[in-house]
Amino acid sequence: MKLEADLHIHTTASGHGYSTIKEIVESASEKGLKMVAITDHGLQMPGAPHWYHFTNMISLPRVMQGVEVLRGVEANILDMQGNIDLSERMLSDYMDIVLAGFHDSVGYTGTSIDDNTQAMIAAIKNPYVHVITHPGNPKYPVNVEKVVVAAKKYNKALEINNSSFTVRPGSYTFCNQFAKMAKKYKVLVCINSDAHICYNVGENTNALALAVQAGIRKEQILNSSTHKISEFLVYHKQQSQQFAKAQ
Ligand SMILES: [Zn+2]
Ligand SMILES: [Zn+2]
Question: Which whole number is the average pLDDT over 101-116?
Fold first, then answer.
């Protein structure tokens, strides 16, 4: 199975990424990807970009080397209320796609499965969030079924992160639980590289194998087609605009 997009990629702007956008799109183009999302870390991460990085993404071409480039962020889940570390205005006016996940050293204070589950579900409810990154990270265990049911209800995607198998030890078991539960509830999944260097862009071998083994079909994978991604983003743009109006 070939996926058309990689929606989780870091650049040098994250402080601990090693490639530029130019290097990333060149690699994506060589690998035949049609779309990438540039998703550097949110503001609370040590070494994260200044907020100008996100607002200035308007200066990026929409297509580079024949690859469509989405302007995004991998924001940090900050609390049990679903707050993330980019202002509402930046999320609504500058970002095409918003990923959110748990990370160390960003001020999140939850300590139990209940805390983490509540925080992750609140992030799913956040109208600006599209994808929850590495929900299978064993460092932040959650009630898998509750999270999957919430993702279904709010039409959000849950990520199976290819880097988790190397940089987040113990992820396989939880990722497998997520994949099986996602299959059961027919929840959208997003299979990403989480590349921090251009060579890993589009690398999804282990995550895709796990998803296929769990019975997840192409139609259920958000980034299997750019058409599916565009429809998904348009739907959520409308939802978030309605939310903003009602405020
Ligand atoms: Zn992450
Ligand atoms: Zn990441």
Answer: 97
Question: How much is the average pLDDT of 136-143?
Answer: 97
CA of 74 to the centre of ligand 1 (A): 7
Calpha distance 87→137 (Å, rounded): 26
Question: pTM of the entire structure?
Answer: 0.98
CATH number of the domain that residue 220 is part of: 3.20.20.140
Mean pLDDT, to the nearest integer, of 111-120? 98
Total domains in the chain come to: 1
pLDDT(29) > 90: yes
Spatial distance between the Cα atoms of 101 and 10, rounded to a whole number of angstroms: 14
Collect residues with CB below 5 Å from ion ligand 1. Answer: 101, 133
**pLDDT value of position 169:** 87
CA of 161 to the centre of ligand 2 (A): 9
pLDDT tens digit string along 161-178? 999 999 998 999 999 999
58 CA from centroid of ligand 2 (Å):
21
147-181 burial, b if ≥16 CB within 10 A, otherwise e?
bbbbbbeeebbbbbbbbbbeebeebeebbbbbbbb
Give the range of the structural domain holding residue 197, as residue numbers without chain letter.
5-246
